[in-house]
Amino acid sequence: MQFAHINEIALHYQEIGAAEGRPTLVFVNSLGTDFRIWRDVVVQLAGDARILTYDKRGHGLSGIGDAPYAMSDHVADLAGLLDHLEIRDAIICGVSVGGMIALGLADSRPDLVSKLILCDTAHKIGTPDFWNERIARIEAGGIAGMADAILERWFTPAFRQPENAAFAGYRHMLERQPLAGYTGTCAALRDADLTAAALKLALPVLCVVGDQDGSTPPDLVKSLADLITGARFEIISDAGHLPSIEQPEILAGLVKQFMATAVQEEI
User: Fold this and answer.
1) pLDDT confidence of 267, banded at 50, 70, 90?
2) Do the beta carbons of residue 114 and residue 90 sit within 8 Å?
3) Residues 6 or more apart from 191 whose CB is under 8 A from it?
4) Which of 264, 266, 259, 231 is nearest to 50 (CA)?
5) CB burial class (10 A; 0-12, 13-18, 19+) of residue 92?
6) Whole-prediction pTM value?
7) What is the third-level CATH fold of 2-266?
């Protein structure tokens, strides 16, 4: 396992190398998950790019730090990790809050970002009342008390079957996240509005969403794509909020195609 002290917390990350000259692809996970959600995408892209995955603060094996957080805390952590690893001009692929972190990074540290892949995310997600209610319910009853409602937003009915061991596993991942890290990131989502950052983007962007996403539905993700000059928009069939889990082959294919197209456009 790999760890680095960034902004006074230990960040857990995984780096997979590639041949010299290959692009660097960075994956940023969603609320209530860790970097293992990208595993089935990463195995298909290994060798095509240098790959970096990490657990954002308050999630997985990374430190919790001082919660609640601002979105800028998550952005600064990613910037610090990329600086630590001497990575520049990376392709950042983020899902949900990870997509907002990617947007914030492109806005504040454009030297670190060459392209963005924004999965199941938006410039603003939810309302203050929505997030305040979520925080209050989880502080009162724990993440497990809301797991059913959250997982219904994440996954399609076909995936949410009792006999599906993977579904049980992702429930465990959600329920075992640190409560302070989860609610701290809810606060960051509550207070974040990246509309201005999206409007300023001037780099290649791919926006992707599952057709059955209950957290950031296709119309919301399309509204993000419409803010970004030249952004591509793709809907993945038979997927919820986390296409990397339900449709990893399709998502990996879109990422490969986007990387290749972006390279051709630069030439």
Assistant:
1) very low
2) yes
3) 70, 71, 128
4) 259
5) buried
6) 0.97
7) Rossmann fold (3.40.50)
